[in-house]
Amino acid sequence: MVSTEIEMESFNKLLKQYPIDSAQAIISEGKGGANNTTKYIESMGHKYVMRIYETHKDIERVLVEHEILEELNKDNRLTFQVPQLIRASNGQTALRLPDGSGRIVAISKYLEGINPSFNNDKSIFSFGQTTGLLMNALNNIKIKRSYAYKPYYEIEHTHPQCPPDYIAEWCNHPPQPFQDLSVQLQWIAEQIYCFQSQVSWLRQLPHQLIHGDLNASNVLMDNDRIINAILDFEFATNDLRVMEVAVCLSELMVGEMNESAIWDKLNIYIKGLRTTIHLNELELEALPILVQLRRLDVFIHFLGRYHDGVDEADVLRRQIVNAVSRPDWIKAGGPKLIALCNHS
For a disulfide at 15, which of 22, 59, 198, 293, Cβ 3.0-4.6 Å? Predict the structure, then answer.
């Protein structure tokens, strides 16, 4: 989204509250995600990233993320970087954009690297290895603020406007733009209903702080295809430890049509993961269910965004297709995944 003249005036006004020479600053467009807008700032030989939160105006949620980042930045054992926040003149790491919108802004130092495409063995292995390193680091963090998000398995809390009954009704009686996907939506509704019977035993698995959204857009790699930075801790919360891995596995599968290539990727990722962390037998047993939960969670997230008028129908349609891309996953893929984890 290209900034308007009014927005640029607002950005320049904001920068005056930071130890950044606003008169010399050059602001350019960055890669925006589904939940935020990114701007790059260059001033006096230094580079920064401005992040604008677009889907909520709750500063407490942002400060939870910032507390986690500040704790991670104290850990000198990390082999990767995380965003290092710049404090404003009032000492705060999050400010409101002075344009009347109430949007929250945070500025951090620019991190070098590029988003991986995960079509290379070395980057996939490094992704697995770094996942384990991050899990170990997050397990040592205890924050003072209350977590803003519930665990993935509390699917009724994924979006405040989308409780299970609403989802079931919407899927079984979809509005006109989605009626040609009625079979797929009924399958999603059935999977959400079936998943709820799994929650009681999932609650017994090890819990810790997790990132919760590790994917190619939230990590950077260097020229040697080694993961060197992890970004966007917005959804970090206390959850199943193994959910961190399930998210990564699910993301490696999205968009890959070649079944053989999928299993090659999963195998390499798991080999990298096992060099840095060990999952117990029950966690491995839960992995197939949690991989599917990630897909269902993403669908609900985007259903909520559609409900709120944030996204158009075509965005949600893509997520529906992704969610149902492997309808036999639990029965066919699940046992194969568990076997792969036990032998990698």
Answer: 22
Strands (DSSP E) contained in 136-257 are 207-210, 219-221, 227-230, 237-240
Q: Distance between CA 263 and CA 58 in Å, rounded?
A: 40
State which amino acid sits at residue 81.
Q
pLDDT category of residue 3 using cuts at 50, 70 and 90: low
Q: Which of 339, 297, 324 is nearest to 195 (CA)?
A: 297
Q: What is the predicted pLDDT for the residue at 328?
A: 83
Q: How confident is the model at residue 344 (pLDDT cuts 50, 70, 90)?
A: low
Share of the chain above pLDDT 70, in %: 98
- C-alpha 200/C-alpha 243 separation (Å) is 15
Query: pLDDT class for 71, splitting at 50, 70, 90?
Result: very high
Distances (CA, A) of 40 to 31, 32, 47, 101, 111: 9, 11, 7, 20, 11
Residues 166-181 have a mean pLDDT of 96
Contact 311, 238 (CB under 8 A): no
Q: What is the DSSP letter of 331?
A: I
Q: Which amino acid is at 262?
A: I
Residue (of 159, 166, 141) closest to 67 by Cα position: 141
Element (H, E) at 128: helix 121-139
Virtual CA dihedral for 4, 31, 98, 69, nearest 10 degrees? -170
Q: Tokens 């990390």 identify what position?
A: 78
Q: Calculate mean pLDDT across residues 246-259.
A: 90
In this structure, what are the phi and psi dihedrals at residue 147, rounded to the nearest 5 degrees? -65, 145
- Nearest-angstrom CA–CA distance, 124 and 120: 6
Q: Give the Cβ contact number of residue 338 at 10 Å.
A: 16
Query: Alpha-carbon distance 117 to 51, whole Å?
Result: 23
Select from 63, 237, 214 the least CA-distant residue to 154.
237
208 sits in the region (left: phi over 0; alpha: psi -120 to 50; else beta) called beta
Close Cβ partners of 9 (under 8 Å, ≥ 6 residues apart)? none
